[in-house]
Amino acid sequence: MPATVSRDLRLWVVKPGSLQRDDSSEILDARSTVTLIESGQIHILVDSGLAGEEEKILSGLDGIGIVPEDIEILVNTHQHFDHTGNNHLFTSARWLYGTELDGLGIAPGVRIAATPGHTMDSISVVCHSSLRAVIAGDALPTMDNFLKDLPPRIHVDRWLAMDSLHRIANMADLVVPGHDHSFSISERNYVTLEGLGEATHAEGGRRGRM
Fold first, then answer.
1. Domain boundaries defined on the chain
2. Nearest to residue 35, comparing CAs of 160, 170, 137?
3. For residues 196 and 105, what is the distance between their CA atoms, to the nearest angstrom?
4. What is the DSSP secondary structure assignment for residue 55, as one 8-state letter?
5. Which CATH architecture has domain 3-195?
6. Closest Cα partner for 108 from 130, 137, 128?
7. How crowded is residue 129: how many other Cβ atoms within 10 Å of its Cβ?
């Protein structure tokens, strides 16, 4: 089920992100969240996942009634391979990335926000109406980063990373993180997209700071 940001603005998590670590906290496997935004008749995909996940992403889109040719805009929150691995599926899409897009409105109720720190080119996508949702990529990769007020473990500038994390938390009701399930800022808990506005409950998955 989509999160209804307003009557004409909805979003779906096509594929939730994940993060696996070994006992010494080294990353074994990282797979990004893939999110679909529908603003009126405009379809926007945020990140495209890891190479090899094509079937899972296509199946997720098909369940929403979307084919790759329906995607008009593809946003990459940054250029790491686990977020860009299936860009090739969306040949009809306009490709957007980079902090120079800060403040750009890409559809009604949808804009780009520069959120550097994890990488210098990191951006987030802000969906703003009665519900404020931020698709944060790795600027806020897991709920644990928010709860513990810690930057992404992988970052190029700690100060910028913390500033971006705080700005996301201040502008959002709901965060769709880069490597975790969606969560509510006020409830400080996972939410299911059909449960927004109600008592939150876990979508599942294992928490862990990136």
1. 3-195
2. 137
3. 24
4. H
5. 4-Layer Sandwich (3.60)
6. 128
7. 16
Is 15 within 8 Å of 53 (Cβ atoms)? yes
pTM: 0.89
Q: How many CB atoms lie within 10 A of CB 173?
A: 19
Q: For residues 64 and 13, what is the distance between their CA atoms, to the nearest angstrom?
A: 10
Q: Side chain identity at 68, as an amino acid letter?
A: P
For position 130, what pLDDT does the model report? Answer: 77
Is residue 74 within 8 A of residue 45, CB to CB? The reply is yes
Q: What is the pLDDT of residue 155?
A: 96
- 186, 181, 44: which is closest to 112 by C-alpha? 44
Q: SS3 helix, strand, coil % of the chain, rounded to 5?
A: 20, 30, 45
Say whether 94 sits in a helix, a strand or coil: strand
Q: CA angle 175-132-169, nearest 5°?
A: 50
Residues of the chain with pLDDT under 50: 194-209
What is the rounded CA–CA span in Å between residue 178 and residue 169? Answer: 14
